[in-house]
Amino acid sequence: MSSPLLDVQNLRVSFPSPKGPVEVVKGISFTLGRERLGIVGESGSGKSMTGRSILKLIRSPGKVTADRMTFDGIDLLSQSEKQMRAIRGARISMVMQDPKFSLNPVMTVGEQIAEALVTHAKLPRREINDRVLSMLEAVRINDPARVAKLYPHEVSGGMGQRVMIAMMLIPEPDLLIADEPTSALDVSVQAQVLDIIDDLVVTKGMGLILISHDLNLVSHYCDRILVMNSGQVVEECIASELSQAKHPYTRGLLAAMPRIDETRDELPVLDRTAWAGT
Amino acid sequence: MSAISLSDLDISYGETQVTHGITLDVAEGESFALVGESGSGKSTVLRAIAGLAPDWTGKISVLGKARSHGVDRQVSRQCQMVFQDPYGSLHPRKTIDAILSEPLAIHGLGNRGPRVEAMLAAVGLDRRFRFRFPHQLSGGQRQRVAIARALMLEPKVMLLDEPTSALDVSVQAEILNLLKRLRREQGLTYLVVTHNLPVVAFLCDRLAVMRHGRVVEIASAEQLKTGKLVAPYSLELLAASGAQVVPT
């Protein structure tokens, strides 16, 4: 592989508290090419913070430091807010967890998708319209012309999430960060939405960071997995070899999941006395 | 005698009719699951049994007694509900002690202090949590409080509305173990709503698959585990979660 798309070394995120700064991400390092990377961990493991810090979306008083954080040769740490705005959306974009809270309720779906495009490129109106409709079609929405005129409250959760994916992919970014893209959705819709992301990522040759707490889901859709616990990467492995994971934390997470052909009488639980202070 | 028996139940929210002719029988001591996609009306069925969706026709009986449309104290004593989101279902300005004592006060039961302590122990919470507020607890601990609150009146039937879907996998395992242990110890009947089929395989004996407000199939957990469901929609659901369960 040539030089990596994203190179993060010793990333740290901390927030001040009355008892001194609390580090939520404690020095993690990874590189990403044009591949699919999964980040898994429980709530509070710092996985979302990692995703957000790549886009510099962590606001004061949060503090992000790193030895190196480069994206396609650009040093993200030294970019100003204005320069970041040119990168966000156009080069790196992010799919959020819940379409209900992340879409603008007073704009139609079509307007919102067009906005993502217009912000980064000047195009004639007709072409914008065509691209919005073809993008909606790409995320497998039947009858895109009708859906483009709807408001977010008029579409279902699964459709809302597809609209958000359309919005994030229309500027054709190089890297897509998907932060729990399906945890607000039904099982039956989840697979559809992930297949769409997967399809678009593979055909357009983008890099993907999929953040989730669902180990099986991540192992199914990614090439490589980082397992995070309390701000640190505890294990890195190839997705297909997840079942042979070595770290006790990863093994614990895998075992805690009920299976469809469940025969165990009791599920093994993680011994959290080590880190649950209160 | 069946714990919950529904016959020809049509539930409406205003003009919209949500369920169509639901007929179900849950035996005493059984753990029964309702599965289906969002909007299939599975939570609405629970809400109607609990008395939160009063606009229904048909018949609901709990432990052999028909339920009225209004607030029914007799039903409340025997049948309690646990909600999906432990972040939203506990009163933010009441301590755990107040939350757990409230059902006792409403039903005029005494001996509240010892009962609260015993219940905290039963759901595996340390007694130092008793005078804390919900925001001082983690999600799993809050769900334990919600389960404890439902159990305060010593009901026989528990309605569980997606009890673990807001929780992490490892915490989910703890709560599922807790629910299983409580059922064994207290001989409870569960009616569980979920869209997670592995949870059904772990916790339940039978399941009903719902779609568009209708029951499309009633099957045993054995059938689910061996993949021997019949209705095409159930197989679709099975395939959707199978894709995640069996990594390729």
Based on the model shown, name its key terms.
heterodimer; A: 278 residues; alpha/beta; Rossmann fold; five-stranded antiparallel sheet; disordered C terminus; B: 248 residues; six-stranded mixed sheet; 11 strands; 38% helix; EC 7.4.2.10 (chain B); translocase (chain B); cell inner membrane (chain B); cell membrane (chain B); AAA+_ATPase (chain B)
Report on the structure:
- The complex is a heterodimer of chains A (278) and B (248).
- Chain A has a single domain (6-256), classed as Rossmann fold, CATH 3.40.50.300.
- In chain A, helix 7 packs parallel to helix 8.
- Helices cover 33% and strands 23% of the residues of chain A.
- Chain A is built from ten helices and eleven strands.
- Chain A is an alpha/beta fold.
- Chain A is globular, with a radius of gyration of 20 Å.
- In chain A, strand 5 (68-71) and strand 6 (74-75) form a beta hairpin.
- Chain A has helices at residues 47-54, 81-87, 99-102, 109-118, 125-138, 144-147, 157-169, 187-204, 215-221, 248-255; strands at residues 6-15, 22-32, 36-40, 63-65, 68-71, 74-75, 92-95, 175-179, 207-212, 224-229, 232-238.
- In chain A, the strands form two sheets. A six-stranded mixed beta sheet of chain A has the order 7-8-9-3-10-11, sandwiched between helices. In chain A, strands 1, 2, 4, 5 and 6 form a five-stranded antiparallel beta sheet that branches.
- The longest helix of chain A has 18 residues, at 187-204.
- In chain B, helix 5 (139-151) runs parallel beside helix 6.
- The radius of gyration of chain B is 18 Å and the shape is globular.
- Chain B has helices at residues 42-50, 73-78, 96-106, 112-122, 139-151, 169-186, 197-203, 221-226, 232-245, and strands at 2-13, 16-17, 22-27, 31-35, 56-62, 65-66, 79-82, 157-161, 189-194, 206-211, 214-220.
- Chain B is built from nine helices and eleven strands.
- With 248 residues, chain B is α/β, with parallel strands linked by helices.
- Chain B has a single domain, classed as P-loop containing nucleotide triphosphate hydrolases (Rossmann fold, 3-Layer(aba) Sandwich).
- Chain B starts with a strand and ends with a helix.
- Chain B is 38% helix and 25% strand.
- In chain B, the strands form two sheets. Chain B has a six-stranded mixed beta sheet, with helices on both faces. In chain B, strands 1, 2, 3, 5 and 6 form a five-stranded antiparallel beta sheet that branches.
- The A-B interface holds A 42-43, 156-157, 186-191, 213-217, 219-220, 239-240, 242-243, 252-253, 256-262, 264-270, 272, 276, 278 and B 37-39, 136, 138-139, 168-174, 176-177, 180, 195-199, 201-202, 224-226, 236-238, 240-245, 247-248.
